[in-house]
Amino acid sequence: MWEYSEKVKDYFFNPKNAGVLEDASGVGEVGAIACGDALKLMIKVDPETDRITEARFQTFGCGSAIASSSALTEIIIGKTLDEALAITNQDIADFLGGLPPEKMHCSVMGYEALRSAIANYRGEVWENDHEEGALLCKCFGVDEGMVERAIRNNVLTTMEQVAHFTKATGSCGTCVEGIEEVLERTNAAMVEAGELAASQAFVAGATPVVGRKAPRSSPVVAPAPPPAAKMTMLQRIKLIEAELEALRPALQSDGGDCELVDVEDNKVMVRLSGACVNCQLASVTVQGIQSRLAERLGTPVRVIPVPSTH
Amino acid sequence: MDPVYLDNNATTRVDAAVVSAMLPYFTEQFGNASSIHAFGAEVGAGLRTARRQLQALLGAEFDHEIVYTGGGTESDNTAILSALETRSGRNEIVTSTVEHPAILSLCAWLEKTRGAKVHYIGVDARGRLDIDAYRKALGPRTAIASIMWANNETGTIFPVETLAALAHEAGALFHTDAVQAVGKIAIDLSGSDIDMLSLSGHKLHGPKGIGALYVRRGVRLRPLIRGGHQERGRRAGTENAPGIVGLGAAAALAQEHMEEENTRVRDLRDRLERGLVQRISHAVVTGDIENRLPNTANVAFEYIEGEAILLLLNKAGIAASSGSACTSGSLEPSHVLRAMKVPYTAAHGAIRFSFSRENTDADVDRVLEVMPGIIAQLRQMSPFWDGESKTRTAFTPTYA
Question: Among its keywords, does the record have Repressor (chain A) (predicted)?
Answer without folding.
Answer: no
